[in-house]
Amino acid sequence: MTTVALKDVTKIFQDGTVAVDNVSIDVNDGEFMVLLGPSGCGKSTVLRMVAGLEDPTTGAILLDGDLANDLPPRERRIAMVFQDFALYPHMSVGDNIGFPLRLSRVEPMARGERVADVASALGIGDVLARKPNQLSGGQRQRVAMGRAIVRRPGLFLMDEPLSNLDSGLRAELRAEISGLVRELGVSTIYVTHDQAEALTMADRVAIMRRGVLQDVGTPTQVYGRPATLYVAAFLGSPRMNLLEASVYVHLDRYVTLNLGDQNLYLPWDDIRARAVAHYHGERIVVGMRAEALTPVAPNSPGDVLQGRIRYLEHHGHESLAFLDIGATAVVVDEMGQAPAEQASEGGPLRRFGHAVQRLTNRGASAAAVQELGPSRSRTSVLSDPGRHHRRPAELAVRLAPYPNVQSGTSLSVSVRMDALHFFDDRGDRIDVGWR
Ligand SMILES: Nc1ncnc2c1ncn2[C@@H]1O[C@H](COP(=O)(O)OP(=O)(O)O)[C@@H](O)[C@H]1O
Ligand SMILES: [Mg+2]
């Protein structure tokens, strides 16, 4: 229906907050794009700029290929659904859904038909006469959706529409919403801080951190080959194990990844070994998801790590064991912290020489530069002592639901070397033929 393009869009608020920092995203015709990131990373601001409720400080917003920066909201053919969707309490469900049509002077007959169509598509055709306070939470959300759909928009903007609902209902409505908008073929930008929601609903996911776009791709791409340490840490449950490793190259044979007490060996004929070999004598971050680890018998041959079970977590369908393997974990900060906490963490300004210059060129205030914070600092994730980046690793390993093991005992796990992820000390992916 509508395509959206953000080109180098930056939003700096009056008080100097850089909410969106040079973001470029394309949303294709009929695509379901999910904007994902922790609270305060700039998701809503992106959405509001697309809707025309907020002006970009710099950059361009294109709708169907045309510059839309100065297009009034009502001319954008956009419908928005928010977290705290407000229904008119004194109006019936039918009147709530039909309200936008009444505003645009659609005849009552035609209005009634469109409302009935939309309501039946949403499974609320039988409650049209009720008032909002006679509905369940899920039904109310469907009414809000109906009101957005009924105008036949070219683009849906949804800002955490499910986050006020309980988890069962959320899962149900996830499937319903994505099914419905796909059926309608309406391009959608859907904002959430919930990575599971993003991965299950999206055609493509765009991950943001502190106003900066980190990665864009299909759920498989961003999960399978995260562009940054941050994306790696944000996606998936349990979180990816991120371990500090020292690299030693044995030319033509293998690359040793020293994890502290234990080593892994990347064979030279694994093409990624060449990329990792550039870091000879340095430290990198090795990422391994729980699915890359399989419990094996003690002293099994091959790529095996051994550890003591520090504790077990039972999740019903599976159990997680957390192993002490004598390694150091790299902890990625601001995974969902409140913006205030992020700001107070600060960071020495002199480190952002290039960022300062870039912003100064655009005529931004010094306050704006200060607000950039560490996202621009490019300091090492491995050696910044003030920010609690490292701690003894507890390697998350999946076990069957009722495992025959206890905490305190030792466990060996075989490591799927081809499922490892490597990141440099700035948090960027190390890979072969990477973008
Ligand atoms: N009108 C505003 N004035 C100043 N700062 C704002 C304004 N709106 C949002 N912000 C700030 O911009 C940043 C991004 O906000 P927002 O886009 O709402 O994030 P998200 O939707 O990802 O939680 C936050 O630090 C927020 O405090
Ligand atoms: Mg928001």
TrEMBL record:
One of its GO terms (biological process) is carbohydrate transport. Keywords: ATP-binding, Nucleotide-binding, Sugar transport, Transport. Residues 368-390 are annotated as: Disordered. Pfam families: ABC_tran. CDD domains: ABC_MalK_N. PROSITE patterns: ABC_TRANSPORTER_1 (PS00211), ABC_TRANSPORTER_2 (PS50893). One of its GO terms (molecular function) is ABC-type transporter activity. Residues 4-235 form the ABC transporter domain. The keyword 4Fe-4S does not apply. GO terms for cellular component: ATP-binding cassette (ABC) transporter complex, substrate-binding subunit-containing. InterPro entries: AAA+_ATPase (IPR003593), ABC_transporter-like_ATP-bd (IPR003439), ABC_transporter-like_CS (IPR017871), ABC_transpr_MalK-like (IPR015855), ABC_transpr_MalK/UgpC-like (IPR047641), Mo/tungstate-bd_C_term_dom (IPR008995), NA-bd_OB-fold (IPR012340), P-loop_NTPase (IPR027417). PANTHER family: MALTODEXTRIN IMPORT ATP-BINDING PROTEIN MSMX (PTHR43875), OSMOPROTECTIVE COMPOUNDS UPTAKE ATP-BINDING PROTEIN GGTA (PTHR43875:SF1). This is Multiple sugar transport system ATP-binding protein. The lineage of its organism: Bacteria, Bacillati, Actinomycetota, Actinomycetes, Micromonosporales.
